[in-house]
């Protein structure tokens, strides 16, 4: 409950300090985020720090953003900034899955369509930042690496032929 309250406070700070306009797609937007279709009534910011993630915030008497690496001066949907902060937290924090399990995006009123647009933007942004190289996050997406659960592998007869586990019981392996 406290986490959700802080996230809502963060949302209110972003939404209240930003100069907003209706979204209109620009060449700069397409170059960074791809060609994403938003309605003109989508609330956007004219100046956006999309690196306003939770690990770039210091909260004391005020909310302080400590990283200004990715500030853009063209319309970006304001809800993308909150989405991006949540997405980074969910994918990098050991507690991120708890927010996902709480359906934080539903709590904040994100639709599936809206989320898919922001995922597309995030993917393209990663490609834009990486240039010719591929970011680790996009590499996983590109090669579709299969994930294995250790518990399932251990009960698989086929896998036991290829794997040994050595236990440390305090006297070495």
Structure write-up:
By secondary structure, this protein is mainly alpha-helical. 49% of the residues lie in helices and 10% in strands. The chain has helices spanning 2-17, 27-33, 78-92, 96-101, 104-107, 112-130, 136-143, 150-155, 157-160; strands at 20-22, 43-45, 48-49, 57-59, 63-65, 71-72, 76-77. The strands form three sheets. It has a three-stranded antiparallel β-sheet. It has a two-stranded antiparallel ribbon with strand order 3-6. Strands 4-5 form a two-stranded antiparallel ribbon. A hairpin with a 3-residue loop joins strand 4 (57-59) and strand 5 (63-65). It is globular. It starts with a helix and ends in a 13-residue tail after the last helix.
Short recap of the structure:
With 173 residues, the protein is mostly helical. The protein has helices spanning 2-17, 27-33, 78-92, 96-101, 104-107, 112-130, 136-143, 150-155, 157-160; strands at residues 20-22, 43-45, 48-49, 57-59, 63-65, 71-72, 76-77.
Strand content: 5-15%
Helix content: 40-55%
Large-scale geometry: globular
The helix/strand series, from N terminus to C terminus, equals: HEHEEEEEEHHHHHHH
What is the tally of beta strands?
Answer: 7
Number of helices: 9
Radius of gyration: 20 Å
Mean pLDDT value: 79
Structural class by secondary-structure content: mainly alpha
Order of the strands making up the biggest sheet: 1-2-7
Q: Main sheet, how many strands, which sense, barrel?
A: 3 strands, antiparallel
Give the uncertain stretches in residue-range form.
Answer: none
